[in-house]
Amino acid sequence: GTLCVVEGSGAGELDAAAKATMVCAQKHLPKPIWAVVASRSGAGGEDLAKSVAGLEGVEKVVVAETEGGFLAEPLSAVLHSLVGKQDPSHVVTGSSTFGKNLAPRLAALLDCAPVTDVTEVVDEKTFVRPIYAGNALSTVKFVGSGPVVMTVRATAFGSEKLESSGEAEIEQLGEEEKALMGSNLSEWVGEEKTESERPLLDAARVVISGGRALKSEENFKMLEELADQLGGAVGASRAAVDAGMCPNDMQVGQTGKVVAPELYVAIGISGAVQHLAGMKDSKTIVAINKDAEAPIFKIADYGLVGDLFTVLPELSAKLEALGYEKK
Amino acid sequence: MRVLVGVKRVIDYAAKIRVKPDGSGVDKANVKMSMNPFCEIAVEEAVSLKEKGLAKEVVAVSMGPQASQDTIRTALAMGADRGIHVVTDKELQPLAVANMFKSLVEKEDPKIVLLGKQAIDDDCNQTGQILAAKLNWSQGTFASSVVVGDDQEKVVVTREVDDGLETVSLKLPAVITTDLRLNEPRYATLPNIMKAKKKKIDKVTPEDLGVDVTPQIEVLHVKEPEARSGGVVVESVDELVDKLKNEAGVL
């Protein structure tokens, strides 16, 4: 069977990484499914556990509660213990910062090589994963012993539908595992979440991204207004992040977030390889750039050569005329 | 305390990669090679710990063929004190690399191992986490700030996570992996490049370290992703909105 590890983001609903994890297990990996829901005390972990328990193929859900945030040291020890008892053929989690921090540590405890950033399951041991910032796709086969510990990309599995018809039992951690949660190697101190009313970048239907040509943090507000009109999220190129115009968690690219919305609008972004790797699977790509030679036009479905400072207000006004109100 | 820093030789981030026609991998012949950008950030952090008087010695480690020595020289020119080169022509995967680091850690006894969060060739993002587990050390991945306590018992690491920043306090010794905003790596100056030539690089082999590097993951084939065909250039905002609404159906 397959052990799924799901991060409770707080809302009680499956986020993009959790959904991709469950889709991958339900459609592509051996059954039954056992799920571990990592949840913060008082943050809706029970509700999330119920959502997961209702999915087809799920036999058991274990809730691992923690005070404060998640730490890889205790969580990997808990999972190691659960793997020992359940003996899954696969352990899968999302390619989020939570999963990337955790999965290799767990794999190491099991002395097996992890397979990260999987975008396709060819068969139970064979997977496709992007390398070189998505400029090549590598098909790899796990030939080690022990379970396949893998992380999956939300953009690759997130759009498939989850089947619900299950009624799995929900358990709390046993005493043995609870004791492991008390590892004293690390301590969670605090967090600074980016506050936003907008949808999360990796789950948004529309993403409006800006590059260095925006010139200032102040000008990024123009993108926010456009995003709000379309109910979308705001992203940025690494160049804009490096120039200090916006925080790193807005970065779309190989070293930032990988997104695949229905509509991606790249504004003042030249289209460096590392940025393209983060958005080229979007359904429709629009590029707005002053430089007609910018590489972004080579992959955009619709390109508009022009000065963003005149194009954006016009675009906003035209959208308003179509009924997309300004907020 | 001593800091061990990993430096990987990869195809330069600005070079265009070519998949070999037989699908066996990516062509590395006649391509510019450089230090992995995340490793540069790790070297910078290690050297700055030394400059702040917190670290006594910085040891740069690279693993791979003869040419990996150039990457170690770059780290030495940036300010690392000496180098260790694990010489092998075999393909190395993160699990093997971490096992060899573990063996070096047991010999060198560092308090901090600094690694890049990922290498820009295989994009694995695994080695630091695997090493931390193998050593039963704490891990501070995707670091954007590293503050070593004066008593050198703990290190406070701010981490770049999906929805913002997170701060953890780690018991030392620890493995720390670097994210982009941790620092801006310095350029090696010519005098320092000259000085680096005199610094010592020890050579060892995986066998010396007692590590079997046989991969658990076989690469079956590598291919280029399907090219996205460019679309049309529209003449006006009106035309753009019209296409989005009536052709793409996304409005």
From TrEMBL, chain B:
GO terms for cellular component: mitochondrial matrix. Gene3D superfamilies: HUPs. It is found in: Mitochondrion matrix. GO terms for molecular function: electron transfer activity. Keywords: Electron transport, Mitochondrion, Transport. InterPro entries: ET-Flavoprotein_bsu_CS, ETF_a/b_N, ETF_b, ETF_beta_N, Rossmann-like_a/b/a_fold. SUPFAM superfamilies: Adenine nucleotide alpha hydrolases-like (SSF52402). The keyword Electron transport applies. One of its GO terms (biological process) is fatty acid beta-oxidation using acyl-CoA dehydrogenase. Its main location: mitochondrion. Residues 23-213 form the Electron transfer flavoprotein alpha/beta-subunit N-terminal domain. It holds the Pfam family ETF. The keyword Mitochondrion applies. Belongs to the ETF beta-subunit/FixA family. The electron transfer flavoprotein serves as a specific electron acceptor for several dehydrogenases, including five acyl-CoA dehydrogenases, glutaryl-CoA and sarcosine dehydrogenase. It transfers the electrons to the main mitochondrial respiratory chain via ETF-ubiquinone oxidoreductase (ETF dehydrogenase). Heterodimer of an alpha and a beta subunit. This is Electron transfer flavoprotein subunit beta.
